[in-house]
Amino acid sequence: MSKRDYYEVLGISKGASADEIKKAYRTKAKELHPDRNADNPDAEAQFKEANEAYDCLKDADKKAAYDRYGHAAFEGGMGGGHPGAGFHGQRGDFASAFSDVFDDLFGDFMGGRGGGGRQRASRGADLRYNLRVSLEDAYRGAQKTINVPSSIACSSCNGSGAEGGGEPTTCPTCSGMGKVRAQQGFFTVERTCPTCSGMGQIIKNPCKSCGGHGRVHKDRSLSVNIPAGVETGTRIRLSGEGEAGLRGGPSGDLYIFIEVSRHDLFEREDLNLFCRVPVSMTTAALGGDIEVPTIDGGRSRVKVPAGSQSGRQMRLRGKGMPALRGGGIGDMFIEMAVETPVNLNARQKELLREFEKLGDDNNPESSTFFKKVKGFWDSMKS
Ligand SMILES: [Zn+2]
Ligand SMILES: [Zn+2]
Asked: For ligand 2, a single-atom ion, which residues have Cβ within 5 Å?
């Protein structure tokens, strides 16, 4: 049997407002209530259907998903990711379909709503912290202080949630089962125990500092050791520095995600660094020394061979980045950018013209490139 449209189930149109949806559901719920339908064998199924429809349409997110995808929105896990949001778990679990409206219709029939927030002892969540460091820090390694918004085990109750550090006791309502059953007409309804919220245990005297949660929110200041060699994407795990566990559960871990900032002078490629250095036309032509910066803050002298062209690379061994776990060190590559002189005065222009006349070797017409160009043009003519 195919599933009926939720709007049809509640007898409303697709454009119905939240109030109209609520009203329609109330009417249906009263109409189909088990007390009035002892001789109607279909009532239970219709009642469930109405509950399910309302459970979806009262929730703006689910309603939007349903309007878009229909029932397919809640099949195959598409509607997942809403813990505690309603029709979760087994589709046939009638108790889970009870809604807030249902509660105020039937009053204390189900024993009221639970206290909420109480769960079994559980491990705290892992936390992620994005930390941006400079290339210099990545080169040298660094000690950084970070502030982590987190929760820590409550010191008043040592994380137990009980005032004075007492032990939780078995819930008297459900005898530790975490669930209660109620018989109503032909329904047997099982629902999460309202006293202990399904935990099976209660704290008679909840800790006043943490309200029985066993942990409190606090920003922690942590000193983090950034090892030399980190790069963007490096993760540093600080075991046990994540969120505190619930009720004495173990803490999660803190993951520091490193992002290395761009540097003004150096570009990094794995372990190697690249630095583009301007070289004057005369140094490039005649040869000479240039001074270049290195990542360690020092300087190196580099010999420029006579006749160097723009783009020529020179390697400085061991002047790159260290590998993260002591696996050696990279090199630095200097890329020469030969600068054409500008703003020449009359004398300089005169000298350059003279220079041009003198050096036939410097005439582009005689270069390898132009020989190839000439060959190309000749071949295209024939
Ligand atoms: Zn406490
Ligand atoms: Zn209980």
From this structure: 171, 173-174, 193, 195-196
